[in-house]
Each structure stands twice: as C-alpha cells, then as structure tokens.
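Might you be able to consider the sequence and fold that I enclose below?
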Amino acid sequence: MIEFFTEPWDHVFMQRAFLVVLMSGVVCGVIGSHVALRGMAFIGDAVAHAVFPGIAIAFVLHTSLVVGGIVAGLITALSVAVFSQNRRLKEDTVIGVFFAAAFGLGIVVMSTAPGYGGSLESFLFGSVLGIGNGDVVTVAIAGAVLLLITGALHKEFVTVGLDRETARSVGLPIFWLDMALYAMVTIAIVISIQAVGNILVLALLITPAACARLLTDRIGRMMLIAPLIGAFSGLVGLYLSYAFNLAAGGLIVLTATVVFIACWVFAPRHGLLKFAQVRKESHAHN
C-alpha cells in the first residue's frame, strides 16, 4: 500500500504532473466557485472552445500554447460581452455563435499543420504526463496571479453574482467586472487544458464548485472547499491513471463526478438523504 502512494513520485514526469493537477484543481476550484455562483457554466464551456484557435495558431507558429490560448479566449470573451449589449440577443445565444465559430477556426488552422492529428488528440484529451518544467512554472505563475486577483476582487464578484441591480446601484463597473471574470476563466481553463484536455476542462471548473455549493451555504467556505475537492480529484485521478494505465484526464473528471454524487446524496443540509428525512418528519407531524 505504501509503495502504491510513493512509487509515482519516483518519476520526474509524475512529479510534474502532480504539481500541475494540484495547481489546476485549486485554481479551477476558486474561479469555478464564482462561475457556479453566477450560473455561468455555459461561458466556461464557450471559453474552453474559444481558446482552441489560439492554441492551434500557436502550435502552427511554434510559439507558446498558453499565450495563444489566452489571447484567443480573451478576444472571444470580449466579443461576447460587446455583442450581448444588443438586447435582441440573449447572452447564451451570442456565446453559442462565437464558441462554435472559434472551434471551427481552430480545426481549420490545425488541419494546416503536418501531423496535426496527434497534437489535436493531445489538446482534446489532455497530456498531463508530457508536461515540461516550463509548463509547470507557467501554471504556477498564472495560478498565483489568478488567486491574488480573485482575493482582491472577491467582494465585488460576490456582489455582482448575488444581485446585479444592487451592484449597479452602488456604482460597481459591472461590464468590467464581467470582463475580468471572463478573462480569469480563460486563463484558468488554458492552464488546466494539459491536465484534462479541452473536452473535459469544464468539469474541473464546475464540478468541485457544485460539490462545495451542496456542502455549504457560505461563500467563503465554498471558496475553500471547492479547491480542496479539485486538488483531491486531480491527485486521486492521477494515482489511478498510473496504477491502471488509463487516461489521466478522464479519471480526474470521473473522480470529481463521484465526489459530486456523494455530496448530492450525503450533504448534511442539502443532500438527498437529508431531504428524505425532512419529508419523513413532515409527514409524521401531519
């Protein structure tokens, strides 16, 4: 049993993978809490697709994939924010238009690169075991900056998330706070794509936050519980991947999903069992 926990750490590539999934889990847990609080899961999905053309262009030009993804995600997020100002169009409609267009552009760009099939598969499904030292440093720096910004703007984000009209009445710059959150979601997704892949990255952003939402009514505690669940899911998924030689990204997401189901059933105040108990007691009183 001890060997099961210690053996993966004997390999440098596993050490890098553990560091990245830990950092990605923490960052996505914190940022994802604000996304879940504001019901913005669809924007997370949109950004995950929107970074694709930037990463594809960076791949073709042999430049930084992280920078390429961030630039593409920010351009798409800004486009969504601007085009959504037209009241004839709902935000989710504009998001659908732009994330489909971005993903299509990414496929076209990738098809111009020789041997793009393997690279596309790595992007879609993750390649956490192939992460280099430079990637670890990039994730660490970007993650630290995101956490600092989140802490600095925490009250403003919460105010806008709970009541946009109140936030507007007290003079908060809602448009720019939305843009800041979109940008932070973009960066969190880009630094996590290598861990779980483009298709599954939304789960790392949303599922730990959904778990925390079931476990607590306090936003502060939610911000602590979600990153812990994200980091836990990353570690367990990576251990299982090493032990059974299965896809790391998929196992990380499945671990988070198992935790979510457990929370949905056993959460002390909002779980299925608690709900059944309350109904039973209500019927007994009647």
Remarks:
- The longest helix spans residues 12-37.
- DSSP finds 14 helices and no strands in the chain.
- The two ends are 52 Å apart (CA to CA).
- The chain has a mean pLDDT of 85.
